[in-house]
Structure formats: structure tokens, C-alpha cells
Amino acid sequence: MSDNSSSTLAIPEVGSIPKHVAVIMDGNGRWARNKLLPRIAGHRKGTDAVRALVKGAIDLGIPYVTLFAFSSENWRRPAEEVSMLMQLFITVLKKEINRLHRNNIRLKVIGDISQFDLPLQDLIRSSEQLTQDNTQLTLTIAANYGGRWDILQAMNALLKAEPNKEDKMITENDLMPYLSMGDLPEPDLFIRTGGEKRISNFLLWQLAYTELFFTDTLWPDFNEVNLREAVLSYQSRERRFGRTSEQVIQTSWPSVSTAI
Ligand code: IPE
Ligand code: IPE
Ligand code: MG
Fold first, then answer.
1. What is the number of structural domains in the chain?
2. What are 189-209's pLDDT values in tens digits?
3. 65 Cα: distance to centroid of ligand 3 (angstroms)
4. Would residue 8 count as lying in a domain?
5. 28 alpha carbon to ligand 1 midpoint, in Å?
6. 194 CB less than 6 Å from ligand 2?
7. Does residue 156 form part of some domain?
8. Contact at 8 Å (CB) between 42 and 32?
9. 26-67 pLDDT per residue, tens
10. What residues make up the domain containing 75?
């Protein structure tokens, strides 16, 4: 098989800052339970951690951050929690959108938002529109998102747009523009808080060669120091994308590493 049969990308310099960090923000419920509070208090506190993460990412010069806010499986939670999460999403979006815009942050939402109430869908669209030309950081929120859904919606969209593909072999490059984050670089670093070591149907396609970082810290406690710890761990990894270590050292040894 030829090398260009796989989408996986050029090797970033060892020690560089990740361009794209994707996060499963897990542990809100346990954070609240530990404090004898209702689960929603953990979700509320989790929004402060989002603010800290965005600030930390800007300080470190990370241009893309993607956050898992609500999975396609989270509908299985008690109706009351789902409805409070939706309400929280609306409240936070309304409260923060102008601040995001002032800070030159582009907001993007990925996932099947057609399942949300119309006012929330409208709010998402207007927030995306308002911030679409901002350049400091692209903040992508995955809401009613599932990795399997993403691959299937991309395939269906491709076949709809290019019906003549149906009887041909479809390549990665054909499919990629139709994936939810087809216009963004693939994540370099994945962080999951809350101690679980699983992907939970997050970015299945895009995480193919992402460096994984798991921490027991519960999401509401996650702060800039924890982000730096994850980035430092990332910087110590040698990304090989299938090559040998010798090849990687020859082709990508940096002149100066980006210290943080
Ligand atoms: C993650 O925290 C937030 C969402 C899934 C919306 P959890 O609510 O899953 O917290 P734990 O895992 O129960 O502690
Ligand atoms: C994953 O967390 C989804 C989000 C953080 C939004 P969950 O807490 O729902 O994951 P599982 O079901 O325990 O794997
Ligand atoms: Mg959880």
C-alpha cells in the first residue's frame, strides 16, 4: 500500500506546542457527590474550568480546542439532568458569547444539533455566525456528538453531494471534507479528566494518531497547571506515525524546542 493511502499527517517538531487539544470533560457528577451537592452543581462548576482552559490555551498559544460537552449517549441520563444540561448550555452560551467574540475566539458546534429545541439551535447558529471570522482560537463544542454518527453523516453527505461516487472506491481524502472537523487539523493531544480510560465515542476518526493523556483530576478541578502538565507530557512524546524512531530523529529534530 502506498504511503498516501492514510490521512495521517506530517510529523510536528518534537517539543512543540500542540496545535489542537481535544478534551473529554469528565467527573462533574463525582465532584458534586464528593461535596454532597446535586450533580448539576458539578456541571455548573465545570463551566468555570472551561473558562480557565480557554485562557490557558490562549496563554500557551494553542489555536484549536475541542470540548466534549454532551455525547449522543448522554440522552440516556435521567430526564431532569438532561434538561438541566440543556438549560445550562443556553445560559452559558448567552452569557459568554460576547466575551468570546471580544477575545477574538471563533465558536463552532459539532454534533447533531437538529435534536435540540429550536431556540437552542438558533442560539448556536447565531453564536457561530457572530464569531466566524475570529482568529485567536477556534473553540469547538461537541454537543449531541458521537464519533460513529460523524463518520456516517460524512459518508451520507458525500454520497448525496457526489452521487457518482457510489460505484467507486471512496478514499480518506474524499470523506474528510464532510467530517465535522474536516476543515481543522486533527487533534495532537487528547485529554480525559475523571479517571476513566476510554474514548466514549468521541472523535473516533480524528483521534487515529493523537497522543492520549488521562488524569484522575475531576473536570471542575482542572486548571491551567493541569493543562501545562498535559502539554509537558505531550512534548516528551515521540510521534512516529508508523515510521521508525531513527527516521523521525533524522527528519524532525527541532533546532529549538518550545519551552513552557
Ligand atoms: C461529564 O461529567 C459531563 C457530561 C457528561 C455532561 P459527568 O456528569 O459524566 O460526571 P461523572 O462521570 O458522573 O462524575
Ligand atoms: C463522556 O462522558 C461525554 C462527555 C464528557 C460529554 P461520560 O461520563 O458520559 O462517559 P461514559 O459514558 O462514562 O463513558
Ligand atoms: Mg462521566
1. 1
2. 999 999 999 999 999 999 999
3. 20
4. no
5. 5
6. no
7. yes
8. yes
9. 999 999 999 999 999 999 999 999 999 999 999 999 999 999
10. 20-236
